[in-house]
């Protein structure tokens, strides 16, 4: 009789320790989720086995009846979760139950604040998985044996969740994984049939395998040294299947409650919060498939990590094939979670095949359309849509560049801040903008800036305000880049109010145009003088039709790169072309008029430079040489006080 052999003690990866500490403190109020996490893992293990058994039926070892068994022992204060899924080898145990393999773990841990409610939300989004066992257990034993391996290759993992874990090799007759939770004294209440039944029903009803509650006490404790080394199996007296045990997406919509959809979402996404919305569809005919797509309520912590895993779970005729299939949805819909169960793809499909399979491509196009339709529907609910837009709006903005086919649909989903609003809310759609357009207005006007206040108070908006023309305020980093990929909407082209000549369409009447031309002629002397004086800084000086209150503003040529794009390029280490702006002056402004009468060339130059720099500042620009600006201004101020 062999004892437990090859014993060793290993340390958890630092991140695991951090997670364990945080989790036990932050998830305390939601401790029952441990059961969902462990059942969820057991279900994944069964799915993996089923998939591998497609190639090698021997892995079933004569037992193809996959299920999850739960038992408890009130006296011993244990709860046991057991599956007959794929199981783990010794090295897999070390990898999976000793480290966190997830991408972005470090950045996630870095975001934690120590504020429990905020952290618990973050941890929820990150997903705690197996380690959640330690919310309720002071000690955890895992007995596992890989499907197809010899009974002698069982592995016993034991830990108190504090820094390290022990490993040993044991006999394990049945394949799969058994997890024994030794409950903390204050968590004894979980060793209770009623309680467990209720939790399974609540959290795991959607699991496609039977989750069976054993009526008898849990299996024996692990063998002590020198004792019988086999892990005894529980004696099943009277089993009771607690859940519906049918894959949720195969059920009829009418039979699935919102809570069930949400629980299934949590299982899929490892998100602790509910989904914002979902769409569940069955399609028959040539391309036969069922899809269930979800929009999360909150952005995941790794939304901006382009390498982060994403994509749908692929099933073929109910058999789980692979996770994170990113062939079906474009990158700008990377936040969507869900399942696709296809009857038209072949069971031995691989990622490589998927990438080339025309069927998969068609499926992808159909799913993209479904997802966009779901978002369009969501947009009818203003409040929910605002939640969505705040979390994912900037991702959607990648859409027009990525997906030409659906450009119009994507643009309809966009929302912007606008001069039409009193607040910085991004809730104006292009369609509603067009509805409010003035008689004779032909373009959709927008301004881009670093932030809302800069945009809202930009001198470039003056003429628009005067004429009551609405301007969209684009203040996100991605906006200028996005605008370089969209040209028109509903037949109306876009115009950046800080670029090129401002063409106000027929909202300008003939008289105004004439007056404008005359003013330009009259000011020729001044514009020439300014041009000479600012020759290093400007490409042109002209009389403006944009301003009513400010003395001057800077304008870019229609095809010049704006400040946001420049910043993006520079951040990426690329040199951005340095285009000189056009300096537009408001000849009705007293400061400009004063400048015109200034005969002292030095003084004229100082004034010209100050007005130029101020125009730059007012539009949110950063001065090239702020010290000279300050020196010139102080010189003038001193003269004033003389
Ligand atoms: P996640 O499930 O998000 O990957 P977990 O911490 O829950 O993270 O689990 C880590 C890994 O441990 C899983 O990905 C899986 O490979 C393995 N694992 C956990 N539970 C089981 C189980 N019951 N059977 C087989 N493998 C498991």
Q: Provide the β-strand percentage band.
A: 15-25%
The tally of domains stands at: 3
Biggest β-sheet: strands ordered side by side in the sheet: 1-6-5-4-7-3-2-8-9
Bound molecules: adenosine-5'-diphosphate
What name does CATH use for the topology of the largest domain?
Heat Shock Protein 90
Topology, number of strands: 22
Radius of gyration from the alpha-carbon trace, in angstroms: 33 Å
Description:
37% of the residues lie in helices and 19% in strands. A nine-stranded mixed β-sheet has the order 1-6-5-4-7-3-2-8-9. The chain has a five-stranded mixed β-sheet with strand order 10-11-14-12-13, with helices on both faces. Helix 22 crosses helix 23. It has 642 residues and is an alpha+beta fold. The chain has three domains: 5-217 and 235-241, Histidine kinase-like ATPase, C-terminal domain (Heat Shock Protein 90), CATH 3.30.565; 248-391, Ribosomal Protein S5, domain 2 (2-Layer Sandwich), CATH 3.30.230.80; 520-554 and 572-641, Four Helix Bundle (Hemerythrin (Met), subunit A) (Up-down Bundle), CATH 1.20.120.790. Strand 2 and strand 3 form a beta hairpin. The chain contains 23 helices and 22 strands. The chain binds adenosine-5'-diphosphate. Adenosine-5'-diphosphate binds at residues 41-42, 45, 83, 85-88, 96, 127, 129-131, 177, 270.
